[in-house]
Design brief:
- 42% of the residues lie in helices and 15% in strands.
- It is of the alpha+beta class and 287 residues long.
- It has a 5-stranded antiparallel β-sheet with strand order 1-7-2-5-8, covered by helices on one side.
- Strand 3 and strand 4 form a beta hairpin.
- The longest helix is centred in the C-terminal third of the chain and has 19 residues.
- The protein starts with 14 loop residues before the first strand and ends with a helix.
- Keywords: DNA-binding, Transcription, Transcription regulation.
- InterPro entries: Homeodomain-like_sf (IPR009057), HTH_AraC (IPR018060), Tscrpt_reg_AraC-type_HTH (IPR020449).
- This is HTH araC/xylS-type domain-containing protein.
């Protein structure tokens, strides 16, 4: 008697592959902005990529890997060409492999791999194969998709010198600083007035990172010459300016979304940083 094999359920949102049109900025593609997921994308065109507290350059072609809560900002330096993007949850690979074991998904690892035109054609073929598999009416299709995604990962690792593939002990200070910046950046951008940032104070970050507040502060001070409070305040101020310029929310809504107890505390904070009140700043930005 042959019994049927129960396949792990694929919940909508666990995996998605899309073709990215040739637009000036990849983040205009909504799935790319999803947080809490892994992303693999292929790019053609000069770009500056800002992530956490680092910057990377793409001269011609590259494949890029993103782990959960790592937020990227693209700064196009020329004409952009169509590409591919796949996004998936950790659960998608559950019971198959531990996706976090691969070097490109580890903290402090460089997520950008420059590739040649021939290598890009090979990666494009893999993405196209993934796209075809997803469209099939086949109970095992996501097993095939996992194999193809792993092929993307392994083919990328083959591009690196052997010494780069060895497991290395990452400097603890660098690792902690990277985790901090990922947690901080992972709260932005704020796109909905009902969303409120929760990691607001040094103690919040220390608790999330399982370290003492003083240890986190010393680590960040050593790496950035700024205190935890300064780094948080600078990022909140940057987001405040963005919300004032791009959202029609009132000052009270912006203050709440940025974690301030009330509007007066936010106004005082903003005036100290900018020299003017939020409303006056909004008028200047509009003008």
């Amino acid at each position: 008697m042959i019994t049927s094999i129960s396949r792990p359920e694929i919940i909508p949102g666990d995996f998605k592959v899309i073709r990215v049109p040739a637009k000036d900025q990849l983040e205009s593609c909504l799935p790319y902005n999803r947080k809490g997921i892994f992303k693999i994308s292929i790019h053609q065109g000069a770009n500056t990529i800002h992530f956490a507290d680092k910057t990377a350059q793409i001269q011609k072609q590259a494949i890029l890997f993103s782990r959960p809560n790592m937020v990227y900002r693209f700064e196009p330096q020329g004409k952009q060409h169509p590409g591919y993007l796949c996004v998936f949850t950790e659960r998608f690979f559950d019971q198959f492999v531990n996706i976090n074991d691969y070097p490109m998904f580890r903290p402090c690892a460089s997520p950008v791999f420059e590739i040649s035109r021939i290598q890009m054609e090979s990666f494009n073929e893999l993405f196209a194969a993934i796209e075809r598999e997803v469209g099939l009416d086949f109970i095992y299709k996501y097993d095939a998709v996992r194999v193809l995604v792993l092929q993307l990962i392994l083919d990328t690792l083959k591009l690196q010198p052997g010494c780069e593939l060895r497991r290395q002990q990452v400097n603890s200070t660098m690792r902690l600083n990277t985790h901090f910046h990922e947690l901080l950046e992972g709260q932005f951008p704020i796109l909905d007035a009902s969303h409120k940032m929760h990691l607001r104070h040094p103690a919040d970050f220390a608790q999330a990172l399982f370290v003492h507040t003083n240890h986190l502060n010393r680590s960040l001070k050593r790496g950035t010459e700024k205190t935890t409070s300064q780094l948080i305040a600078e990022r909140i101020f940057l987001e405040a300016k963005h919300l004032l310029q791009n959202m029609d929310w009132n000052v009270n809504q912006i203050a709440w979304s940025l974690g301030f107890e009330d509007q007066s505390h936010f106004i005082k904070f903003f005036k100290k940083a900018a020299g003017i009140t939020p409303n006056k700043s909004r008028i200047r930005l509009i003008d």
